Structures are given as structure tokens and as C-alpha cells.
Amino acid sequence: MPALFGEWAPRVVAAAGVGPGDRVLDVACGTGVAAREALARVGANGSVAALDPNAGMLDVAIRLGGAIDYRQGAAESLPFADGAFDAVLCQFGLMFFSDRPAALREVRRVLAPGGRFAFAVWNQLETAPAFATLAAVLDEVAGPRAANALHAPFALGERRELLELFTAAGLSRVALATQPGNARFPSARLLIEAELRGWLPVMGVELDEAQMQRVLAAAELRLAPWVEPGGQLTSAMSAHVVTAQEAG
Known about the structure:
By secondary structure, the chain is of the alpha/beta class. The chain contains ten helices and nine strands.
């Protein structure tokens, strides 16, 4: 999680204007990276709730601590009252929602008048060269289905389509800022293993061990340009941060 998301949590929370006393919701919170960042900003008079459909992610988030109201549920049907929050966050979850317009309507519903939100989504795959390279290796070695699983997180990278999704939801003051960032892994092998043994199975793609070893061998060679002298892999990975405000 820190390799991909650590640098973005402070940016997303700041983009939503989270401050002392705010009531904040983190949608698709995962292990609570953004929720904990929000908690540090709202102070004793504020509150943070967080929602995710994945029980395993929530278990990790709860173990990491913090006075956060974690709940299991879907963005398309938020278990909260109308106008319950001053700010809603979503860090790299929107592309996986089953009904994105419905989820955005729910965000509007739970925002108080004048409430703000900030959603982050990854830019297009070609702007993340290490991941684009790994996707190409997967396509060559394991086939298009495996490669497509790696394309999925970048599904909302096209700016115009992304803006249209938000403006259609009826939110006001919609703005999009594309921000540079980096993915940082202790080694190329750890990046590859994380995708092969972690992400691909989540997307329903199971490779056998022989296929994994072939991908590892090929991808380590192809990812060498992004490996630093100490062995760490660092690759550019930019994101779009979309902000908007409910009418006051």
C-alpha cells in the first residue's frame, strides 16, 4: 500500500479541504490510508467514517488503529444519512465501482450543503511506464486476459471522459488536476510478485507457477531501466484528482 498510495493520501485529503471539526467519509477505504490522514486533521471535534466492500481490507485497517468508524458496504448504497458529511474522499476506488453514476449520486446525497469531495484515479497506463512494461510482458507471456487485469486500475485515465462522469452527477465547481507522482517498490521483483500473486487473483486471473516464473524472468529484465543502484524500483505514476462541491 505505501508503495502506491502513501504519497497520495495527504494530497487527496487536502484537495477535499479537510480541517478541524469536519465530518469525513472515506469511500473504498482499503486499509484506511486516507481515513487515517483525515483523522489527523479533523481534531477532537471532527469525525471520520470509512467504507469498503472487502472485509479483509477492513480487518487490516482496524488493526492499524485510529478512532474511525469502519463499515463494510458498497459505494452505490452508502449506509449513512443524507447530509451526514462535510467531506467525502475516494482514493483509487472509483474505477472498480459497479455503477459509477449511482455511487456519485450517493456521494451527493450524504454531503452536507456546501460539502466538498475529492476523488483520485490513476492517469492513463502509458503515463506509468513500469506498469505499462509489465502489462506488455503479461500480454506476451500469459495472454491478453492477464494483461487486461493490469489495465483495469487505469480505466478512467482519459480526462474528458472522467470530467463528463462527474459533471453528469450534478455536482458543482467540478475541477480536475493531473498531478505527478511515483510508484516506489523495494525491488522490481516485489512489484511483479505483488501483481502476479496479489492483484491478478483479485481480478479473477490465476497463473500457474511456471507462467509466473516466466513472467518474473522477462519482466525483471524489462524493468531494469527503473531500478536504482540500491535495487529500489521507482517509476512515474501520475493521477487525476477531481474535486467538486455540493450546492450550499
